[in-house]
Structure formats: C-alpha cells, structure tokens
Amino acid sequence: MREELFKNCTLCPRKCNVNRLEGKRGYCGMDSTIRAARAALHMWEEPCISGKKGSGAVFFSGCGLRCCFCQNRDIAIGDSGKEISVERLAEIFLELQEKGAANLNLVTGAHYVPHIILALELARGKGMNLPVVYNSSGYESVETIRRLDGYVDVYLPDMKYMEPELAAAFSNARDYPQAAQSAIAEMMRQTGPCQFAEDGYIKRGTIVRHLILPGHTKNSIAVLKYLYRTYGEDIFISVMNQYTPVWKNEKFPELNRKVTRREYEKVLDAAIELGIENGYFQEGETAEESFIPAFDYEGV
C-alpha cells in the first residue's frame, strides 16, 4: 500500500523518518491525515495557468520547508486546515472541474503525495480529465517526484536559492539548492519542453518560479543564470516581485520591506542580458496582501 510510505516518512528531503500513521508529525507538521485549507478557483497564477477560467487550486496544510518569510504561514505551520479523506479529496477534484477550472492545482502537497495519487486515480475513474499542476516550494525528494510520473502534467516549482547560506538562514535548508536542482531535473525529464493549447493554457511542461527577496538580487540573478544555462527555452521562468512582509522579522530586518523598483529592474535587466524569452514578469504594485487567499475552508 502507498500509505506504507507514511510509516517511516522520507517524502521530502528532510527525511524525518517518523511514523505518521501513528499520529507522529515530522518537520512538515502533519501526520498522515489529509488537511486542506481551501479549494477554489484561483485567479492569481501565471496567465497560462489561471487565464480567465481560474485554476482549481487545492491548498494543503503543512510544509516541509517553512521559510521564515512565508506568505501562507497559517497553513504552512498547520494552524489552518480541515481534515478530509482520500475519497473527499477526489470529490473536491471533480467539483473543481464542474466549476470550470482550467486545471487542477495541487499547492504544497509533497507530504501527501501517496494520498494525492490515490485521489487522482479515484477522480479520473469518475471522469476527471483536467491537466494536473503540481505547485511546489522546489524542496522536493527526487523519489517523491518520480512517484508522480504519469499523474502530473505541469510542474510549478519554486527555485528560491542558489546560495546555501541564504537557504540555511531563511529556510533552515542548506541543501535547498541541490535538492531543488535535482527535483527540477526530474520534473523536466517527465514533462519535456512546455506545450500549450490553442487557447493559451499550458498542457504540459515545467514553469519555475523565483521570488525576489529584498536585499538579495545577487541570489536572484544566480538562480536565473542556472535555470537558463541549464534548460534554455525548454522551461518558462516566472520572476516575481510580489514579496510581502506580512509580519515583523526580528532576526532578518532586511525582510521587513518590499522589493524596490531598482532591485526588480536589476533582476529583469539580468534576465534580458541572459537572453531569457520564455518567461513571465510582474508589473505594477504586486506586493499586496490581496495575493494571499483567505484560508477559510472554502470548497473543502
């Protein structure tokens, strides 16, 4: 049974080895019971994912990374989330399809992958045929990503850091750069270059996101260089300036402000100089709390 994977959990690079079936919780903060905080049409993803229809986003509780600046902190630390069964999760997938979602968007679900696979099998058996988007922090185990082969059409990982020191400071994950690089390589192996439907929605492929952090444009440019030099035009790169300081950070005061226009333009200039053409860039005043959805159990 796939649920056996929860017995000695190594689903993410933390490899906590706890028995989540017995109710123990690893770094992600979750046992083996599925908890979700929201399931609704989401309009704030990249244009090829949300479009005008909206993406059918399911926000899972818990996270194996838990960055100190997390904008979804309430669900990342497990404070929000309703317990649901695998069967209910499959129903939610079908309900999102009935609402007209362009795709199914699984947000931070690494620690529930065995359950997600079962739910997808159930939903597909009942007619769910939406493209599946796996929306991730990028801090993933290659073995877990391999299990999703054949179940996921589009990978939407972050690539947060190229600097181990920064990853250690902000996410307690010095190994983040290597873990994310290995995970993205496996994602690319599965999907190949991005493919789009006639209406502009992505059908298959990998889009890598990078959130610029205030005071750390050097890290951002290093991320862009790695991605473009490794994958060229086979991936799309989404550069985001929407960083929002949602609470005061005493340890890292540089995180208590938004990204300046000068910082953002410096990163964009680097992207242009590299020759990046397949990408998305945010314009205008995007660092607003309105980008953070209400985790009020809608649709769960």
Automatic annotation (TrEMBL):
Top-level taxonomic group: Bacteria
Required cofactor names: [4Fe-4S] cluster
Matching InterPro entries: Aldolase_TIM (IPR013785), MJ0674-like (IPR040085), Pyrv-formate_lyase-activ_prd (IPR016431), Radical_activat_CS (IPR001989), rSAM (IPR007197), rSAM_sf (IPR058240)
Gene3D superfamilies in the cross-refs: Aldolase class I
Pfam families in the cross-refs: Radical_SAM (PF04055)
Chain ranges of the Radical SAM core domain: 59-220
Transmembrane segments: none
Keyword terms, alphabetized: 4Fe-4S, Iron, Iron-sulfur, Metal-binding, Oxidoreductase, S-adenosyl-L-methionine
Family stated for the protein in its record: Belongs to the organic radical-activating enzymes family.
The name this protein goes by in its record: Radical SAM protein
Species annotation: Blautia faecis
